[in-house]
C-alpha cells in the first residue's frame, strides 16, 4: 500500500495533503525482533504495517504475556503511552521482518496544523482496539476464538498457536480443544 492509498483508506485528503504526508511519513524496514517500543519508553510515533507482523508483550510477567498482535494493514502503537505521553509498560517488537510507514507525533501535529484533514487520524488514535472487544464481549475460549475467526482470521496465518493462546489468555491445550470443535 502506498502512502496515498493509506490516506485514502482513512478519509478524504487533497493532493496537497497527500504531498505533505509524503514529506513527513517515513517508510522503514524493521528486522525480526527489532523493537518499535520498549517498556519505560514513551510512545512517540504511530506505525502502519505494510507487510510483516508485530507483537506487543508485557515483559514484566513471568512469561512475557502477549498483549496485542498486529499484521498487515494494522496500526501499531501503544495507545495509552501515546495519548498520555507516559512510559509504556509493554514492548512492541517485530515478529518477522517487516515494513512500516511511520509518522511521529511531532510530525502528526505539524500536519494537523497545515490541514484539518489530518484530524481524521483521530479515528485511528481513538479506535477501540480489538483486544478490548475480545475481552469485553467474550467470556469463553470458544467465543474468543470465534471472534478472531470472524474479525481477524489472518492472525492464525502469522502466529503460532502458543502465541495465539497467550493472546487469548488460555492454555495452548484449551486452544487445541476449541479449534478441534470449530
Which percent range fits the helix content? 40-55%
Regions with pLDDT < 50 over 5+ consecutive residues? Answer: none
CATH topology of the largest domain: Jelly Rolls
> In terms of quaternary structure, what is this?
single chain
Overall pLDDT confidence = 88
- CATH architecture heading of the largest domain: Sandwich
Shape: globular
Radius of gyration: 17 Å
The rounded distance between the terminal residues' Cα atoms is: 33 Å
Number of strands: 8
Number of helices: 10
Strand sequence of the main sheet, in spatial order?
1-8-3-6
Beta-strand portion reads 15-25%
What does the model show?
The longest helix is centred in the last third of the chain and has 11 residues, at 141-151. The chain is globular, with a radius of gyration of 17 Å. The protein folds into two domains: 1-127, Jelly Rolls; 128-182. A four-stranded antiparallel beta sheet has the order 1-8-3-6. Strands 2-7-4-5 form a four-stranded antiparallel beta sheet. A hairpin with a 6-residue loop joins strand 4 and strand 5 (65-71). It has helices spanning 3-10, 15-24, 79-84, 105-114, 122-125, 130-137, 141-151, 155-158, 161-168, 172-181; strands at 26-30, 35-37, 45-51, 53-58, 65-71, 75-76, 91-94, 98-104. Helix 2 runs antiparallel to helix 4 (105-114) and helix 9 crosses helix 10. The chain is α+β, with helices and mostly antiparallel strands. It is built from ten helices and eight strands.
Amino acid at each position: 500500500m502506498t502512502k496515498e492509498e493509506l490516506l485514502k483508506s482513512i478519509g478524504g485528503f487533497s493532493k496537497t495533503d497527500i504531498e505533505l504526508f509524503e514529506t513527513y511519513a517515513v517508510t522503514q524496514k524493521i528486522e525480526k525482533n527489532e523493537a518499535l517500543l520498549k517498556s519505560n519508553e514513551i510512545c512517540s510515533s504511530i506505525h502502519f504495517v505494510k507487510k510483516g507482523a508485530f507483537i506487543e508483550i508485557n515483559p514484566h510477567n513471568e512469561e512475557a504475556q502477549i498483549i496485542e498482535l498486529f499484521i498487515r494493514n494494522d496500526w501499531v502503537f501503544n495507545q495509552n503511552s501515546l495519548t498520555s505521553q507516559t512510559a509504556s509498560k509493554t514492548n512492541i517488537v517485530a515478529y518477522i521482518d517487516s515494513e512500516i510507514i511511520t509518522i511521529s507525533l511531532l510530525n502528526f501535529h505539524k500536519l494537523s496544523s497545515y490541514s484539518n484533514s489530518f484530524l481524521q487520524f483521530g479515528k485511528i488514535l481513538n479506535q477501540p482496539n480489538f483486544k478490548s472487544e475480545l475481552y469485553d464481549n467474550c467470556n469463553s475460549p470458544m467465543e474468543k476464538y470465534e471472534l478472531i475467526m470472524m474479525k481477524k482470521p489472518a492472525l492464525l496465518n502469522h502466529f503460532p498457536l502458543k502465541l495465539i493462546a497467550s493472546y487469548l489468555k488460555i492454555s495452548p491445550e484449551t486452544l487445541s480443544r476449541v479449534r478441534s470443535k470449530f
